[in-house]
Automatic annotation (TrEMBL):
<feature type="domain" description="NAD(P)-binding">
    <location>
        <begin position="8"/>
        <end position="132"/>
    </location>
</feature>
<dbReference type="Pfam" id="PF13460">
    <property type="entry name" value="NAD_binding_10"/>
</dbReference>
<dbReference type="InterPro" id="IPR051604">
    <property type="entry name" value="Ergot_Alk_Oxidoreductase"/>
</dbReference>
<protein>
    <submittedName>
        <fullName>NAD(P)H-binding protein</fullName>
    </submittedName>
</protein>
<dbReference type="InterPro" id="IPR016040">
    <property type="entry name" value="NAD(P)-bd_dom"/>
</dbReference>
<dbReference type="InterPro" id="IPR036291">
    <property type="entry name" value="NAD(P)-bd_dom_sf"/>
</dbReference>
Length: 246
């Protein structure tokens, strides 16, 4: 079996990828800022990163932060992977990074380009937003008596577990370049998803759509982050909520 490094291996997605690869018998190293023995901040790089990738066949890059630093982190990871002779770099990105002019999306697109130009064997999978992300958003929006959501926006959430399944499959295969997107089973308006969240968690709130401004909002309204032709996910938002209870 191969030795695989999972960056962001304690996060929502990375933890699931790690579990699947270990269950399949692979040696998996978890890289995270605060988890020994590979406690490394990718934004800083350094000798700890070189130690983490030494002897590794495949890297699954799940680490990411909307607060910035993804491009710098990817640069350090790629440089270390080159030095170590890593065979395959698998990167998870987001559907719509090339269509929605959001700062975080631009950064994710830039990381895709770094991966493609890395000189390593590479695979990039884009996924739609996770059910977990929507649930966290709705918990915050449901705090006031009235739940305000962006008007005219739909989403196509997917189960993080299904994305983890696909990443684990890709990690043990040959480099495949840009593979087909992985999107959730349903395109739903945000207000319908918000009401599903309220029902599942026993909250009573009025849901009100609020128009926003800016190019990113227009990109979301236009559905740039959706992939209805790739609705290959199976778990609906209601099914996720029934298990997690919001």
């Amino acid at each position: 079996m191969t030795t695989i490094l999972v960056t962001g291996g304690t996060g929502t997605l990375g933890r699931l990828v790690t579990e699947r690869l270990r269950a399949a018998g692979h040696e998996v190293r978890v890289l995270s800022r605060h988890t020994p023995p590979y406690a490394v901040d990718l934004r800083e790089g350094g000798s700890g990163l070189d130690a983490a990738v030494a002897g590794v066949d495949t890297v699954v890059h799940c680490a990411s932060s909307p607060r910035g630093g993804d491009e710098q982190a990817a640069g350090h990871l790629i440089a270390a992977a080159r030095r170590a002779g890593v065979r395959h770099l698998v990167h998870v990105s987001i559907v719509g990074v090339d269509r929605v002019p959001l700062g975080y999306y631009r950064s994710k697109l830039a990381v895709e380009r770094l991966v493609e130009q890395s000189g390593l064997g590479w695979t990039v999978l884009r996924a739609t937003q996770f059910h977990e992300l929507l649930a966290r958003l709705f918990r915050t929006l449901a705090a006031p008596p009235v739940m305000l959501v962006p008007a005219g926006v739909s989403d196509q959430p997917v189960a993080a577990a299904e994305v983890a399944d696909r990443l684990a499959e890709l990690a043990v295969g040959a480099p495949a370049g840009r593979v087909g997107d992985l999107a959730g089973p349903e395109v739903r308006t945000l207000d319908s998803l918000a009401r599903a969240f309220l029902r599942a968690t026993g909250r009573r709130r009025a849901v009100v759509g609020v128009p926003l401004a800016g190019k990113a909002y227009r990109g979301f309204r236009a559905g740039g982050h959706l992939a209805p032709e790739r609705a290959v996910g199976r778990t609906t938002f209601e099914e996720y909520l029934a298990v997690r209870r919001g």
